[in-house]
Amino acid sequence: MGTKIKKIAQDTFMLTYTPMGVNQFLLVGEQKALLIDTGYGKGGLDKKLKKLTSLPLIAANSHLHPDHSNGNFLFESVFVGEADLPERGMPSNDLARGVADYYLHNSRIPKALIGKILKLGLMRPGQEKYLPLEDVVELGGRSVKVLPCPGHTPGSCLFLDENTASLFAGDAINGAFWAFTSPQTNLKEYAEVWESLKPRLQGVKRLWISHHRAPLDAGYIDAFIKALRTAGAGECKLVGIKGTPEQVNIYKVKDEKFGTLTFWAYPSQVR
């Protein structure tokens, strides 16, 4: 077990922490390199990064969830969407604690196991300094544009690399989109966020996401927007998670080209 490296384009690498199946992405320029997400910081991530580049490294989070940000301790400073700065609050931590508290008092699951699961589910800022992302990250001969995409979290951001016609999207788009971790997300409003981004994404050919090793085709964006607008009209299944502010449902929407798109959401988010 550890971190696997895959070259996905010129001077562009995907690093996957295999036990958890979460990806980080390294984009190397002439003067600097950009690491998109830090995962859990395990699996020899720091050593793998040193093998790939000796350039000064900029660390950035696509959003402030633990599977994308708990490796931030490896760096002196980390850039994140302004609305996700730790001082703005971390609602996913409140959710994780609420679920853990329910099962601690209402189940026979060992306390030690609940504690281990909770540890994975909490974002734990340390000594690292958090800074707001700017509109462009300059790497020298390579400019990466930062596009705010509020939804999965308030400060979720996309990273557009025109050099490789790639969009690094974190959890902002997916075959199984988790909306319920951010209670303010409304799926129809989120569809409009993506609609507004489309003019800036005209040259994108592939979408690299955090929990799948193969990229999504750029055409998936239109299917995703359509599904966001119609979720709730079709199949719906209750998820047996306890301790959440509302019941969590799985909403499924079928697309002719991409198959079934799935949304995990509260009923109040699907309206």
Describe this entry's structure for a reader.
23% of the residues lie in helices and 31% in strands. The mean pLDDT is 94. Helix 3 (91-106) packs antiparallel against helix 4 (111-121). The protein has 2 domains: 3-88 and 128-175 and 188-230, Metallo-beta-lactamase, Chain A (4-Layer Sandwich); 91-121. The longest helix is centred in the middle third of the chain and has 16 residues, at 91-106. The N and C termini lie far apart (42 Å). The chain contains 6 helices and 17 strands. It is of the alpha+beta class and 271 residues long. The chain has a 6-stranded mixed beta sheet, with no helix packed on it. The protein has helices at residues 45-52, 66-69, 91-106, 111-121, 187-197, 220-230; strands at residues 3-9, 12-17, 22-28, 33-36, 57-60, 77-80, 129-132, 136-138, 143-148, 157-161, 166-170, 176-178, 206-209, 216-217, 235-239, 248-255, 259-265. The protein is globular, with a radius of gyration of 18 Å.
Describe the structure in brief.
23% of the residues lie in helices and 31% in strands. It has 271 residues and is α+β, with helices and mostly antiparallel strands. α3 packs antiparallel against α4 and α5 (187-197) packs antiparallel against α6.
| Average of pLDDT | 94
Number of structurally distinct domains: 2
Give the CA-CA distance, first to last residue: 42 Å
Strand arrangement within the widest β-sheet reads 8-9-10-11-13-14
Helix and strand composition category: alpha+beta
Order of helices and strands: EEEEHEHEHHEEEEEEHEEHEEE
Give a short account of the largest sheet.
Answer: 6 strands, mixed
Q: Radius of gyration from the CA trace?
A: 18 Å
Shape: globular
**Reported CATH architecture of the largest domain:** 4-Layer Sandwich
Would you tell me which CATH topology of the largest domain applies? Metallo-beta-lactamase, Chain A
Provide a count of the helices: 6
Percent helix: 10-25%
